[in-house]
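Listing S7. Sequence submitted for prediction.
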Amino acid sequence: QVQLAASGGGLVQAGGSLRLSCAASGRTLSTYTMSWGWFRQAPGKEREFVAAISRSGITTRYADSVKGRLTISRDNAKPTVYLQMNSLKPEDTAVYYCAASRSLVGTSTLPGVYDYWGQGTQVTVAS
């Protein structure tokens, strides 16, 4: 079994930056062959896709609303996935969740594809 722990959230002013981390534990050898994603859920809204990175780390995908501001990356040596968040806006306020898939080779925007989920970390952007 693999456990994911997300961290790095907090309160930031609009235009500021945060870096979220998602660390894997448990059967971590398998994390080197997993694809990853970040999702978010704002109050009263459904969970939505934010960013994803392929098993190889070569391919990334972003929601249109975050392109050019958020960057997903991975460090297989740890193993950890990051979400660098720049130029944050109040509409980015949400609980952010990391997720990992054993079978996915590329990237996916679909929550159902992912096998493991972190507990979520709160990001609040003040205007």
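Caption to Listing S7: primary sequence and predicted structure tokens for the chain studied. The chain has a mean pLDDT of 93. The chain is about 0% helix and 50% strand.
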